[in-house]
Every structure is written in structure tokens, then in C-alpha cells.
Amino acid sequence: MKAILCRAFGPPADLKLEETEKPKLGATGLRIDIHSAGLNFPDVLIVQGKYQLRPEFPFSPGAEVSGIVAEVGERVSGFAPGDRVMAVCQTGGFAEQVVVHHGSAFKLESEMPFDAAAAMPLTYGTTYHALVDRAKLRAGETLLVTGAGGGVGIAAVQLGKALGATVIAAAGSPAKLEAAKAAGADHTVDYTSENLAERVKAITNQAGAGVIYDAVGGDVFDACLRAIAWEGRVLVIGFASGRIPDIPANRLLLKGCSAVGVYWGAFAARDPAANRRNFDRLFELYAEGKIDPKIGRTYPLADAARAIEDLENRGIVGKAVIRVRP
Description:
The protein is an alpha/beta fold.
């Protein structure tokens, strides 16, 4: 089969499309003929050795896929060859086939397009867990979303609106703010030209944001802490800016607020039943038209290295997808 392979940590340009052996199935595995694979910021980090997961070489990046089941292991029930599925795989997604544990796959009951299905697991799984399980976002609260024009940010905007929040979308370009507005954001802030904390306070009549969803880190996270409401919750999603911020304990004390870590992968592994219930609800919201992954760009498998570079350079609005099969 063909796959994008990483043979040594380095820049995305070093990745090559090569012929490689098919992965072994195993008793609890599903072999999936991949149609689409979602692109995520961890793909930028993992090929450079900057992610917490460091796979053995050679490996293929790509942590979420959609496609058709080709083969099932002898201890698998509930799936059969021919099923349309989406799945989480950690690595191996930028390839023609992948094998995943059956517990990491979700059957597509509706006619959800493969591109949308591949764009859903990490962004919406993370975001639903963050807003519902970790922040316990309530209808009527104000939600501030940073990095709001990317895949995970748009997921947060859509889910925030579905949960009844007033959503403030913050991003670094007019195109990304326009995408967030189209996703349902009530207010937008360009944090490259506006003071984020002051704008959020002005929008909220000085109250601040009750829940803050931050995947950027760095200076943006620092500004978020200045914009948080009394008893607010700031969700630590990631550090796309490259700087992991420090959290001054006195600010948590003075605002009676909380910094809440969100590690969806560990949650899904520790409580798979709860994670599956979350996805049941996500499928319902998709069927109701309340969420819909916004595909900003698609790439053929051969161009996966360029896709990772574009994401690293913040050149993608919405979610990018690798199309393995046209």
C-alpha cells in the first residue's frame, strides 16, 4: 500500500509517499480502506519530535480517518466488511489502509460525507469533552474561543452555540474571523490588532467571559486570564503559538476562577463508554444541522507534506482533509 512515511524527525518537507507493508490486523482490529484523513496540529508536532507521542520509525502521521471496513479481527463484534466508519488511530492515517482497535471506530449510520467524518473525531471529540465534561458550560454563559478560524476553533463556536452560549470568536486574520462568524459567532475580535482583554470586557459589560476555550497559548492565553469572569473556567486545549504559558496563582485567587486541563485522548482511553456517549450526542447534533465540520482545504495523499506545512504556517481556514481515495 502507499503511505506518507516519516523516517526521522524533521521538517514536514522530509515526508515521502512510499510503498510499505499493510499493517497487521490482530484479533481486535478493524482494517479500514481509508477515503479521507483529517489534518490536525499534532501532525505538525509529531513529525518533528515535538509531541508527547513519539512513534517508532517509520510511521505515518494522521490521527483520524474515515472509510470502509475491509476486514475485521476474530474478536470483533458490531462491525462487518463494507461498513462506513470513522476512527481515531493516533498515527497511520495518511495511508491507503490503517488498522485500529474496534473500540476506536464509530459506524456512520447517516450518509455523512467521508470528508466531514474524517474532520470530526479529534476536533469535536475534544471540544464536546471540554465544554460539557470539563467546563460544564451553561446556557446563557459567554464563551470566548481563541484560534476560532481553525478546525478546533470552529468546532468550539458551533458547539458553544448549540449549548446556548453567547460566543466571542477571537482569531488573527479577517478570513478566520469571517469563518467563525459564518459558524455562528455572536462577536469577533482580531487579537493581532485589538486588545483582546479590553474587547471581551467591553462586549460583556466588564463581566468577562465565563468560559474560555484556548488552543493558542502564549500571549493569547495571558490575555484570556485578564478577560475571565468571576468563577470563570479557562480550558487549556493546546499551544499552537509555541509558548506554554505560566499561570499566575494570584489571578486564579482574585477571580475565583479555574484553569482546567483538557486531554481528550486520555479521557477517551480511561472512559470509553462516556466518550462513546459523547459521540452519540455529536451525531445527533450533526443530524440536527447544529454542527458541521467546515472543510477549508483538501489535498491528495501525495501532497500531505505540503498540507502539514500549510497548517504549520497558519495558512488554512477551517479544517484540512487529506483525500486518500477520490
